[in-house]
Design goal:
The protein is an all-beta fold. Helix content is 3%, strand content 38%. It has 1 helix and 23 strands. The strands form 4 sheets. A 9-stranded antiparallel β-sheet has the order 11-10-9-8-15-6-22-21-20, with no helix packed on it. Strands 5, 7, 12, 13, 14, 18, 19 and 23 form an 8-stranded antiparallel β-sheet that branches.
Length: 284
């Protein structure tokens, strides 16, 4: 037994660990152990939500691939907003979009990672943190908006906050993996576990959603997460029970996406709007 536990951070976990490898994360104060398939985290406060089974994500080519959830107003909240999703970039220098519903820069919402910087657009432009350029790491990105303050989190850690004005609605569609205003920009990489809430979640909720790198089931309150009642959009990218491939069958790695069901309501299912985004066996 080593007298000193080796350290890492949530951004620099070893890419090829061996079963039983253990580290202390200096940025989260969590203890992580590799079980042969996944990192398992033990939080410093003793609370760890059970990870949800997560095998697939969606991969986008950065050129034409895009998913569209339609124009339902149920995905355009005004009382508050949280956007959450996981991304693994093919290019860390790209304009990589996760969730977007915006017709001009002063309405709706847009969550993206651009050149390693976390961006939120809608009621103005806001940027948080820098250096998130890894192409081998899954990042959890989260924005909260309470109609007066926008906060940005990466891997459960607050990167900054800024003042803002109230949310402004629009009638355009909600998009996953791309944005359409100005010149279109497409995600280069993989996207998973996307979610929209109609409230601004607090820091403990965000940290529990990150869960030391192990996604949780957002439809169930557990640990310090209690946001399920305000969950209005939740797309699991192949791991939802009713998700399908382009032929209407069950998703498997390499299949072109058919429908990614919104598990938070009977609206806003994501379908292919261009290109041929696929399911892939790579997930946080």
């Amino acid at each position: 037994m080593p007298t000193t536990i080796p350290t890492t951070t949530s951004f620099t976990r070893p890419g090829s660990p061996s079963t039983g490898d253990a580290y202390f994360e200096t940025d989260t104060n969590n203890y992580i152990i590799y079980d042969g398939a996944n990192w398992r985290g033990y939080e410093s406060d003793g609370i760890l939500a059970s990870p949800v089974t997560n095998n697939l994500s969606a991969v986008f080519d950065g050129a034409t691939d895009k998913l569209d959830c339609g124009t339902t107003t149920s995905l355009m909240p005004t009382t508050g907003l949280t956007l959450s999703g996981w991304i693994k970039q093919t290019s860390g220098s790209g304009d990589n979009n996760l969730i977007q519903r915006q017709s001009v820069s002063t309405n709706g919402y847009s969550l993206r990672l651009n050149g390693g910087v976390l961006y939120f657009f809608g009621t103005g432009a806001h940027t948080f943190g820098s250096g998130f350029t890894s192409t081998t790491t899954w990042y959890h990105l989260c924005i909260t908006h309470d109609n007066s303050t926008v906060k940005g989190y990466v891997n459960g850690v607050l990167q900054g906050s800024s003042s803002t004005t109230a949310l402004v609605t629009n009638s355009v569609s909600t998009k996953l993996g791309w944005h359409s205003n100005y010149s279109p920009a497409y995600l280069q990489g993989k996207l998973d576990e996307c979610a929209i809430f109609s409230s601004a979640l607090d820091a403990s909720n965000v940290a529990q959603i990150y869960n030391s790198g192990n996604p949780i089931d957002l439809t169930i309150d557990q640990g310090s997460y209690n946001g399920s009642a305000n969950l209005i959009g939740y797309w699991r990218m192949g791991d939802g029970a009713s998700d399908t491939d382009s032929g209407g069958g069950s998703p498997a790695s390499g299949d072109v996406i058919g429908t990614v069901v919104n598990l938070a309501g009977s609206y806003g299912n994501a379908t292919v709007a261009g290109g041929s985004p696929e399911y892939i066996n790579d997930a946080p």
